[in-house]
Design goal:
alpha/beta, Rossmann fold, seven-stranded parallel sheet, two-stranded parallel sheet, 8 helices
Length: about 260
């Protein structure tokens, strides 16, 4: 089956981490008359504001305050959403990072990163995949990062979790393609969000969340296996990956 032959006009989308920088921009990019949006996040205030905006754009919106690490709550939310309007697309954006140049991650923060980024992903996929497989259609998008290409001392748990998501998405794509279910992995570089606003170091090629949303939406419409951006940054990261680790360590080791 040609992977580009999947449905590229979804009318029912579920998004985790919807109130975040990229999540909010992507939600607004999809908001339109006839669209059903099921949005999940922990930030109730930002979620309420986002749902109000999307409703003014004509979309049918249901916002839910939910913790992606709560397996039972996620299964209940996703099952209910899919019963109301069978989901054409599920976009897994919920993620966190800890650790800075000045302060290492604590053991509790490390476990929290893996719980949200990895367990949260699985808690999102487990309820919906059997339903999509039964229908023989659907699309999944998982959020990785260019930080997943190697471990960086600032946030090794974040890098490790994003690397795992990258590999899992590509393996899952090959498994589900024969069942007419598309899987894409989103691999951004620096995007202007509240998360990156705190970074005390240069962020080359950083783009707005709105531009990132447009790139992601276009890539998902084409059912791309990898949606990488911005611009030349993926090429820079690829070149870095070819260098001996000892060379790169000189620049990424904490002083």
């Amino acid at each position: 089956m040609n992977p580009r032959n999947l449905n590229n006009r979804p009318s029912s989308i579920l998004i985790t981490g919807a109130a975040g920088g990229i999540g909010s921009a992507l939600t607004r990019a999809y908001a339109a008359p006839g669209m059903h949006l099921f949005l999940g996040d922990l930030d109730a205030r930002r979620m309420e504001a986002l749902t109000d905006i999307c409703r003014t754009m004509g979309a049918n919106v249901a916002g839910t305050v939910v913790d992606v690490t709560d397996r039972k709550a996620m299964a209940s939310w996703i099952t209910e959403a899919d019963t109301v309007k069978p989901l054409d697309m599920v976009i897994v954006l919920a993620g966190i990072s800890h650790g800075t140049i000045q302060q290492e991650e604590t053991p509790e923060e490390i476990r929290a990163v893996f719980a949200v980024n990895l367990d949260g992903m699985l808690n999102t996929l487990e309820p919906i995949l059997p339903r999509m497989r039964k229908r023989q259609r659907g699309q999944i998008a998982l959020m990785s990062s260019l930080a997943g290409f190697r471990g960086f001392a600032v946030a090794p748990s974040y890098c490790a979790s994003k690397s795992a998501i990258w590999a899992y998405a590509e393996g899952l794509r090959g498994r589900l393609l024969r069942e007419h279910i598309g899987v894409s992995v989103i691999i951004p570089g620096f995007v202007k969000t509240t998360l990156t606003d705190y970074n005390p170091y240069p962020m080359p090629f950083r783009i707005s969340a709105e531009r990132a949303a447009r790139i992601i939406k276009r890539g998902l419409a084409q059912n791309k296996a990898r949606i990488r951006f911005p611009g030349p940054f993926p090429a820079v990261v690829y070149l870095l990956s070819l260098l001996p680790p000892s060379w790169v360590d000189r620049f990424v080791t904490l002083k």
